[in-house]
Amino acid sequence: MVKFGNRGKGIACIVASAFGFALMAFFVRLCDDFGGEITCFQKSFFRNVLALVIALAVFCRDRRREPADGELQPSMAPSGKAWVLLVLRAVFGTVGIFANFYALSKIPIGEGMTLNKTAPFFTVLFSWIFLGERVSWRQFGHLLLAFAGAALVMKPGFRGGGTFAAAMALTGGLGAGLAYVCVHQLGRMKVNGAFIVLFFSAFSCLASLPFTAVDFRPMTFAQVFILVGAGAGAALGQFGVTAAYRYAEPRSIAVYDYTNVVFTALFGFAFFSQVPDALSVVGFAVILLAAFGMRRS
Fold first, then answer.
1. Domain boundaries in the chain?
2. Which pTM value belongs to this model?
3. Tens digits of pLDDT across the chain (297 residues)
4. Most buried pick, 54, 59, 120, 272, via CB within 10 A?
5. Residue 214 CB neighbours (<10 A)
6. DSSP per residue over 157-173, as a string?
7. Three-state SS for 273?
8. Nearest of 236, 125, 130, 119 to residue 169 by alpha carbon
9. Phi first, then psi: what are they for 130, rounded to 5°?
10. φ, ψ dihedrals at 80, nearest 5°
11. Could you give the CA distance from residue 220 to residue 88 in angstroms, rounded to a whole number?
12. Burial of 89 (0-12, 13-18, 19+ CB in 10 A)
């Protein structure tokens, strides 16, 4: 039986997270095809409601579970410093969601996702700045290689116009990067992972509720069902990324977040008949090459 170390577990979790967020993006993209246009705040609210319910159920289960012999029980009552990090994680993550959803409704998805995929760079950069984690040139090179592969797949045009929306997409990547640094530090402090997801989901729901109430758009039954699917994907993504950065340092696993691009393309091929062109195939190969190189570094 193969046993994974913490780094291997971190890689497995971040790949699962990438799949979850790709599933979420698929459902969010599908939503507008089954009814009227819905605001980014309304999508964000419903995206987080199901994640909130799932996180609450998992947290309650963890509170009742007795730790195994020799197992260190994660903290169910965070300290003062942990609360600061929880709030920062929630703020950065929520800003990232709002900014990303706004950008994707205003500019081509390839441009928006390329700018949003700066998140792994920001995660590694801020881990180096704020947490003092060492990053080798080789690791940073693999991260650049993966980003280049993602750009080949998404092929942004950047033809001018939509400057504010492009800035919002970049803000989304920045917010996500900062949020993941907070998650990593919370993991170091042994804060319960379900509580991290629970706090973030509750914060995001409350933050989006006023905007949703002011400009609520009626939804079809299909749209409600689709957004439940988006919430399930978001829950998998949140639990996956929270576990990943608890197990391993960002510099060693951030590159695997780019598997999201591969999963998103597969969904596009399977459900929207979007056949990858030659550049996309090369991009997939570059991402996999970068991931393999990072695994060996």
1. 6-62+77-296
2. 0.83
3. 345 688 899 999 999 999 998 888 888 878 878 888 888 888 889 888 988 999 999 988 888 775 544 444 555 557 788 999 999 999 999 999 889 888 877 776 666 777 788 888 888 889 888 888 888 888 888 888 888 888 887 777 665 556 788 788 889 989 999 999 999 999 888 888 889 999 999 999 999 999 999 999 899 999 999 989 989 998 999 999 999 998 888 888 888 888 888 888 888 778 877 777 788 888 888 887 887 777 666
4. 120
5. 9
6. ---S--HHHHHHHHHHH
7. coil
8. 119
9. -95, -30
10. -60, -45
11. 35
12. buried
Residue type, 261: V
Q: If you ran DSSP here, which 8-state letter would residue 255 be given? A: G
* Residues 282, 285: Cα–Cα separation, whole Å: 5
The pair of three-digit structure tokens given for residue 141, joined into one six-digit string:
């090179």
Q: Which residues contact 188 (CB under 8 A, 6 or more apart)?
A: none
Residue pair 195/59 in contact by the 8 Å Cβ criterion: yes
